[in-house]
Amino acid sequence: LGRDFVPPPGPYVLLRAPHSSSGMATLESSCTLPTAEGTVLMQVYHDPATGPDKPWVVSSSGDLDGREGVLVRLHDACFTSEILRSVKCDCEAQLRESQRLIAAEGGVLIYTPHEGRGIGLAKKVAAYRLQHEQNLDTVDANRALGEPDEARTYTCVPLMLRNLGVRSIRLLSNNPFKANALRALGVTVVRMESLWKADVSDLCLSYVQAKVARMGHIAPPSPKGELPARRGDQGASSASSAPSSCSASDSSLDASAAELCISCDDEEGPPLFRWARPYPEEEASPLAAADEEEAP
Predict the structure, then answer these.
(1) What is the Cα–Cα distance from 289 to 296, expressed in whole angstroms?
(2) Model-level pTM?
(3) What span, in angstroms and rounded, lies between the C-alpha atoms of 105 and 290?
(4) Which of the residues in the chain have pLDDT under 50?
(5) Cα 296 to Cα 292: distance, rounded to the nearest angstrom
(6) Are 40 and 64 in contact (CB under 8 A)?
(7) What is the DSSP string of 210-265?
(8) Dist. CA 181–CA 260, nearest whole Å
(9) Nearest 5 degrees, angle CA 12-CA 14-CA 15?
(10) Which residues pair with 71 in a beta bridge?
């Protein structure tokens, strides 16, 4: 991104700018599949935006045609956790819990090929090395490689949901980026439902804290007490000024105030990326909505 490029303060997310693909996603094949959680309908899609060697897999349970508020998990591939059982993240645990919850009430699991938040396995492993050798967090390691915080796109997801007859969804996720991305594509996201595993490693807690503080994720309950301090804080706290296109005050933004957000573009930044806060200005945080529901 260049040594002199200064990110805006607060929990901004550096996104890869949208790009056009050569065509729409297509359903390649489908079958019923017996699993440990029951029988599911498995569908395999090809998306030109991600390439022929990176299929999208949809696993659905129950009769979803015409249903509102369907439970949906948009889960991105994680080779290190799901295959090698790495304890640096909780992706495998989230995947298994999602399967259990979806089997219990019906819903959709969409397994995407977006390894490493979309930068791919090789660059994800390179980022891991920077985290270890230079004490960077997940955000700064990506940026040190010239990669955005988020490189994932979900343009094919509305088609997958329409093919199942789903009218609106409850998104099983801690990441507001996913809800915003789907809403921008016309998907009705009724609400987000957070997903946390109670017992994770200290390495994973550090990773989660970075995502909460740097990317506006919903904060987890803390069974081990306070989450450890972020190791890398350069991107969030060292910047002295926001880009000129961001007119909102950032003085009140911190890890617990991710709802104070507004989308913006950075005209001075690199052309392949754009800055955006985790939530659109007109929307309340799912945390704030939950607080209102619980109020007497």
Answers:
(1) 14
(2) 0.71
(3) 21
(4) 1-10, 17-22, 224-292, 294-296
(5) 9
(6) no
(7) HHHHHH-PPPPP-TTSSPPPPS--HHHHS-----TT--S--TT-STT-TTS--B--
(8) 18
(9) 125
(10) 107, 170
Coil/strand/helix, residue 293: helix
| Residues facing 112 on adjacent strands | 76
Task: Report the pLDDT value the prediction gives residue 14, as an integer from 0 to 100.
Answer: 53
Residues counted in the chain:
296
Structure tokens at 141: 């390691």
The closest alpha carbon to 74, from 139, 158, 15, 167, belongs to 158
Q: How far apart are the first and last CA of the chain?
A: 48
**Which helix (H) or strand (E) segment is 286 a member of?**
helix 286-294
Residues 6+ apart with CB under 8 A from 257: none
Nearest-angstrom CA–CA distance, 210 and 212: 5
* Exposure of 143 in the CB half-sphere (CA atoms within 13 A): 27
Phi, psi angle pair for 258, to nearest 5°: -65, -15
For CA atoms 210, 214, 220, 223, give the dihedral sign.
Answer: positive
**Residues in Cβ contact with 69 at an 8 Å cutoff, skipping those fewer than 6 apart:** 168, 169, 170, 190
At 190, which helix (H) or strand (E)? strand 189-193
State both tokens at 288: 């704030």
- Residue 48 DSSP class: T
Query: What mean pLDDT value characterizes the chain?
Result: 74
For Cα atoms 281, 285, 290, give the angle at the middle one, nearest 5 degrees.
Answer: 150
Of the candidates 215, 216, 222, the residue with the CA atom closest to the CA atom of residue 200: 222
Report the SS3 class of residue 289: helix
Side chain identity, residue 272: L
- Beta-sheet pairing, 107-112 with 70-76: parallel
Residue 7 DSSP one-character state: P
Per-residue model confidence (pLDDT) at position 32: 95
Query: By the 8 A CB rule, do 92 and 82 touch?
Result: yes
Structure tokens at 212: 């909460």
